[in-house]
Amino acid sequence: MACAACTEVLDESWGLTPSVELRPEPFGALAYHFGNRRLTFLKTRQLVAVVRGLDEAPDVRSALAAGGVAEREWPAYVAALRNLAATDMIRPIAAAAGEGR
Amino acid sequence: MTTVAHGPTLLEHFEHGLDAPICLTWELTYACNLTCAHCLSSSGRRDPRELTTEQCEEVIDELQRMQVFYVNIGGGEPTIRPDFWHLLRYAVDHQVGVKFSTNGVRIDREKAELLASTDYVDVQVSLDGATAEVNDRVRGPGSYATALRALGHLRDAGFRDAKISVVCTRENVDQLDQLKALADEYGATLRLTRLRPSGRGVDVWDDLHPRPEQQRTIYDWLVAHGEGVLTGDSFFHLSAFGPADGSGALPGLNLCGAGRVVCLIDPVGDVYACPFAIHDSFLAGNVLDDGGFAKVWRESALFAELRSPQTSGACTSCQHFDSCRGGCMAAKFFTGLPLDGPDPECVQGYGESALSTERTVPLPSVDHSRPTAVRQQPVLLQLTRRTDLVAPPLSACAESPLAGFRG
Questions:
Q1: What are phi and psi of B7, to 5 degrees?
Q2: What CA dihedral angle connects B336, B338, B342 and B346, to 10 degrees?
Q3: For labeling, which of A65, B103, B119, B326 is most exposed (least CB within 10 Å)?
Q4: CA distances (Å), origin B229, targets B24, B165, B184, B188, B218
Q5: Residue B154 to residues B111, B148, B151, B182, B365: CA-CA distances in angstroms?
Q6: Are residues A34 and B97, on separate chains, in Cβ contact within 8 Å?
Q7: Taking CB atoms and an 8 Å limit, are A73 and B4 in contact across chains?
Q8: How many CB atoms lie within 10 A of CB B399?
Q9: Which residue of B has its CA nearest to A85?
Q10: B95 vs A contacts (CB less than 8 Å)
Q11: What's the CA dihedral at B216, B219, B220, B224 to 10 degrees?
């Protein structure tokens, strides 16, 4: 891992936002946030596996490993996860408490 | 969007169709209190075969199973269905978010408060001008006041981020800034859509569709306002104003989603490829007769055809094809242009030349307009003087010795 900013994310525990649903599609999945009504596309099945695995994994690093993502691709995946977090599709677990659906 | 991608592009996946629509429009009724001159669904009278409350609930159950996350409910005027508020509740309770379009007639203070307290509901109030004069000419007298009253109730009730939905016409393109200011005033988001020659729109399209220089105004305005204004991806034909490499594309999918990621369920359960294509040529099936919506979506021959590789015909050699992808299917169909040719509003000018050739405009196959004129019905036809005449025509019986001489 070259990028220092990634390491920070890798050690954090993230999860799917409670009001977000994933719908499987041939390319990956659609993610829809019922709260802010944003629709996002997860463009690969591997990314879907990682996102689905976030809740179970103790941190992002383990979710990437469990999703079978090669370590050299981690920076790209961290960037993708950050993009998803920007529209609140996923979020650090501590901040996710208190909202139910 | 995320950036990790391999294999076929997302665009290709969309062109091949998804397992369920992304954007589903459901017109709940053809009944309407207004008679807008450009109504895309030729609404007015209720259809006696309209789906019952139970049948609507079954459709919602199926949408939930298909994970259709939200549905755009329209009409007609959906709120005049007596079971509208029940169906709204039923949908959100079944994880199907609702965005509904209304002219505002039933949005009083009480309903605004109900909407403000309901999650997963979005309201879109139709308004086709920033002033009563411009709006009421196409939507009918009083419709401007009705829409603004509804928006006021929504704001006062604390409903956040309603939408003001505007069909761009020749008469309101100059009001885009005013419309944006109006939306800001009501804490709403502006949504601009394209006028299509669908439904009664075909009768007024020649007079109301934006002139070529106005198309440029719309494009520049949309580029300047970016994602702060919604468009329902309806202006992708304008992307050809940008460079041929597609870098000038507007935000959104930039492709015709008909039958691929978009479709319409009409009030009697007929499924059409797109809300702007209510015509037998684009009828895929019926949710009652053909085994439910999922089966129609996944198995109809029409949708299979729309998802198969399309020929781009006369547009193949155009360097801008990758930007506009030939434009809007419905706009071509209802102006009598070939579906594999240019859009009638092609910004490279190929539409105008296509329109000037011999063509047959298809007859409407579904029309719920009221059979006779009603009070306050907008009539765009106006009596005007012929500009080439300076005096009344000369009668053969004129006796004046100066008859025919111009003074």
A1: 65, -150
A2: 10
A3: B119
A4: 20, 10, 11, 10, 12
A5: 9, 10, 5, 14, 37
A6: yes
A7: yes
A8: 6
A9: B2
A10: 21, 34
A11: 170
Burial pattern B331-362, b for ≥16 Cβ within 10 A else e, equals bbbbbbbeeebbbbbbbbebbeebbeeeeeee
The residues, any chain, with a CB within 8 Å of residue A38's CB and separated by 6 or more, are A32, A87, A88, A89
| ipTM of the modeled complex | 0.81
Tell me if B239 sits within 8 A of B246, measured CB to CB.
yes
Closest-CA residue to B251 (of B238, B262, B268, B263): B238
DSSP-assigned letters across all residues of A26-37: TTEEEEEETTT-
Q: Which pair of structure tokens corresponds to residue B87?
A: 């169906």
**B266-316 pLDDT, tens per residue?**
999 999 999 999 999 999 999 999 999 999 999 999 999 999 988 878 888
- Rounded Cα distance, B177 and B22, in Å: 30
Helix axes B109-116, B143-156, angle to 10 degrees: 50
CB distance B67–A37 less than 8 Å?
A: no
On the question of pLDDT at B171 being above 90, the answer is yes
Q: Using a CB-CB distance cutoff of 8 angstroms, which residues of chain A are in contact with residue B120?
A: 34-35
> Residues B335, B359: contact at Cβ < 8 Å?
yes
Q: A6-90 architecture in CATH? A: Alpha-Beta Complex (3.90)
Q: Give per-residue pLDDT as tens, B79-133.
A: 999 999 999 999 999 999 999 999 999 999 999 999 999 989 999 999 999 999 9
| Rounded distance between C-alpha atoms, residue B103 and residue B126, angstroms | 5
Nearest to B4 among A30, A35, A47 (CB): A47
Any alpha helices (H) in chain A, and if so which ranges?
Answer: 4-10, 45-53, 60-66, 74-86, 93-96
Smallest CA–CA separation between B119 and chain A, in Å? 7
User: How many other CB atoms sit within 10 Å of the CB of residue B178?
Assistant: 14
* Single-letter residue type at A58: P
